[in-house]
Hints:
By secondary structure, the protein is an alpha+beta fold. The chain is built from two helices and three strands. The mean pLDDT is about 80.
Amino acid sequence: MGIIEPGHTDSPDTMSLYVPSVDLVVAGDVVYNQCHSPSAIQDTKCYLQDFDRLQQTTASDEELFNQMTRAWGTL
Length: 75
């Protein structure tokens, strides 16, 4: 298990825990969308899956950037 210190989020001393044996992140206030909505977790998961997929099929970092921007816009 490891502690992740993301720096200042919506409070000064935020941290998350990572448990690699079960691929679990306990994120607390680090993951929020308006009122700490679960949709932020699903959106992040989809974004990372898209990144992973596109990274395997694009020829350059610039092409990856352009494909992600087309898929997700500018975040």
